[in-house]
Amino acid sequence: MTTKICKRGKPRKSRRVRLPISIGWGGDIKFVPESTDWHRIEQAYGHMLSVDDRGVIVALVENYFRFQPGEARAPFADDAHRYLNRLEKAGKNFWNVLLEKENTPMTGTGDHAHIAEQDMIQNVAITFVQSHVGRYLKELDYKAHTDWRGLLDVMQACMPAFPKTREFLNERARLGFVEGRAWDRLVWELTEFAKARALPTGVSKFDDPQQASPFVSFFRELQRSFPERFWRHQTSNTALTEAITVARREFKRAIAAREAQKPNSTAEPS
User: Is 269 within 8 Å of 254 (Cβ atoms)?
Assistant: First the structure.
């Protein structure tokens, strides 16, 4: 019997919008290129980098290392919405059941007299249950002697809280991100780094797949100094060129969206 060996590459990133919270980061990962790495990077770029320049690049890369691992652990916005919808539906069901007895006749005559009697018996049973639920809630001594009235107060307060929470989720989702945003930010910040020093930032495509613009060559060789799990779009110069172009466009769009949401803030998206 032949055993089939399956080689699995990096898991594909999800394009679903995530909320801007996470349960992990890579703060303990340092970027410490060797002198041979810097020489290779500078040769590819065609420009020497000062000690200060190298320090700035190290800080930007370590920031990427810090936030990239948390991207895949951030919750999806649609999961949060589904859970909220379930809560809201449960709350509505609670009130529908609670108010059942208000929709039944309390009196009756003639052929309907027995209906009223049965309804009265049912309402007594409901009141009996409610009183004992309240009694046992109070005996639990949970948060300042919660009783039946306290339960109703909580449930009543929940109903207007649900649409407010939905508005908040929508707002946070607009400020959220999809996987790959940390890499996009690294591209953007290294581009700004190069602009500030009058270094090449162009990403022109060449017919020859072995050729690349200086910035693309610089970025490719820089990534080669990363742990492999942090590499992105390294298959070819063409793929990396396209990815850099898209990253710049997407991050610029994210900045514009953030500024539109908070006109008085200059903060960039995380």
Answer: yes
pLDDT tens digits, 216-225: 999 999 999 9
The two tokens of residue 211 are 């050729």
Distance CA 157, CA 101 (A): 22
User: DSSP assignment, residue 25?
Assistant: -
If 0-12 CB within 10 Å is exposed, 13-18 middle and 19+ buried, where does residue 127 land?
Answer: exposed
Q: What are the structural domain ranges in the chain?
A: 35-74+179-261, 77-174
Cβ-in-10-Å burial (0-12, 13-18, 19+) of 40 comes to middle
Residue 205, judged by CB atoms within 10 A of its CB (0-12, 13-18, 19+), counts as middle
Helices (H), the chain: 35-45, 51-71, 77-98, 113-139, 148-174, 181-196, 214-223, 237-261
Which residues neighbour 193 within 8 Å (Cβ) at sequence distance 6 or greater? 53, 56, 57, 60, 199
Alpha helices in 99-141 (DSSP H): 113-139
pLDDT digits (tens, 9 = 90+) for 23-76: 666 567 899 999 999 999 999 999 999 999 999 999 999 999 988 888 878 888
0.70 exceeded by pTM:
no
**Residue 18 DSSP SS3:** strand
CA atoms within 13 A on the CB side of 126: 13
